[in-house]
């Protein structure tokens, strides 16, 4: 049952990760950078938002705490966390004519949801937060383009998921879960099977003797291998189990290592100590 629980937890986590993240997509390269939409300001629309991503032209204004001269039309501000509150940055970028603001963390990797206390109804542009790696990558990329690069901000809605993501969740998750359960089951089966068999090196250490008909104590003595049902003939190699029962070495070795670790006659577990009545003959033998 524990494997079921693990699978369900993984599935839920996978779903949560997909549900709570939106993304910045670089239109030219189709690269996707996971982001998180702020708790204030308008939501991203169904079709997303397309604009030219630009850090403020003046390096000192990289925190975006003050309005700047619009560097281009339809621009999305790429600014750094720190110096002032998130909502102050977004307000300043709104005033600077930005369509949206992407706030990135330069020092720590991890997504946060940007909150703002008080009334934020004056915030009319959406804003998203990107973690350190995404921020650095976007910053680098925006510098490498000659023209300001076009980005699309997509919303964190199941409806905007790419088909592949949908397929992953709907088809692959149950498939992975089934595979996991199957492998666990196989492993347990194998372990159980292993516990039912005697180790080969243990079996080969059990005593053997050569059969001699004249040495048999009585006529009644068992002179047949209970596994292959053949009578013993002189020079046959017999193996003696801890319970004193004897069989052809080849017959009993195969039985113990591939079938069951119990004596075929008295069912004694050969890996355990010899039974108290080991010297007694079983009714089957003396019959
Ligand atoms: Zn035999
Ligand atoms: Zn036995």
UniProtKB/TrEMBL annotation:
Recorded hits in Pfam families, A to Z, give: PA (PF02225), zf-RING_2 (PF13639)
Which reaction(s) does the protein catalyse, per the Swiss-Prot or TrEMBL entry? S-ubiquitinyl-[E2 ubiquitin-conjugating enzyme]-L-cysteine + [acceptor protein]-L-lysine = [E2 ubiquitin-conjugating enzyme]-L-cysteine + N(6)-ubiquitinyl-[acceptor protein]-L-lysine
Which GO molecular function annotations are given, in alphabetical order? ubiquitin protein ligase activity; zinc ion binding
Cite the SMART domains for this sequence: RING
Annotated signal sequence range: 1-22
Biological classification of the source: Eukaryota, Fungi, Fungi incertae sedis, Mucoromycota, Mucoromycotina
Its domain of life? Eukaryota
* Name of the protein this chain belongs to: RING-type E3 ubiquitin transferase
Gene3D superfamilies in UniProt: 3.50.30.30, Zinc/RING finger domain, C3HC4 (zinc finger) (3.30.40.10)
GO CC terms, sorted: membrane
